[in-house]
Design goal:
Structural class: alpha+beta
Shape: globular
Oligomer: single chain
Number of strands: 7
Order of helices and strands: EHEEEEHEE
Number of helices: 2
Helix content: 10-25%
Largest sheet: 5 strands, mixed
Strand content: 25-35%
Radius of gyration: 15 Å
């Protein structure tokens, strides 16, 4: 059985430092990675992978994407098979980049 390790929420922001100041205080935690236009928090309580992406959002809102983190590619593939068997719409994106990391698979 696949075990979801963390839920993933990615939001857009226009000012990374201002957003970091807010989320440092909100989560009472430091980010695990900060780049010029990206930052992420990997929290245990709640089990959340939260990322900030510097991108314009005037028309589309601040939500960038939602997802979940599992332990390995095999768990992603097993979850994909489970979703296919239930008839839910599934799009496989193999060898994609997500959150500045090259992924072998993404559903």
């Amino acid at each position: 059985m696949t075990m979801i390790k963390r839920m993933h929420v990615a939001v857009n922001c226009s000012d990374l430092q201002k957003s970091l100041d807010f989320y440092n205080a909100f989560f009472d935690a430091e980010p695990t990675k900060v780049k010029e236009n990206y930052a992420k928090f990997e929290l245990d309580n709640p089990a959340l992978h939260f990322s900030l992406n510097v991108r314009p959002f005037e028309k589309n809102g601040v939500l960038n994407h939602l997802g979940f983190q599992v332990n390995n590619t095999e768990e992603v593939m097993a979850m994909g098979e489970q979703l296919r068997q239930t008839g839910l719409l599934l799009i496989d994106e193999m060898n994609t980049t997500c959150c500045l990391i090259r992924r072998r698979s993404r559903l």
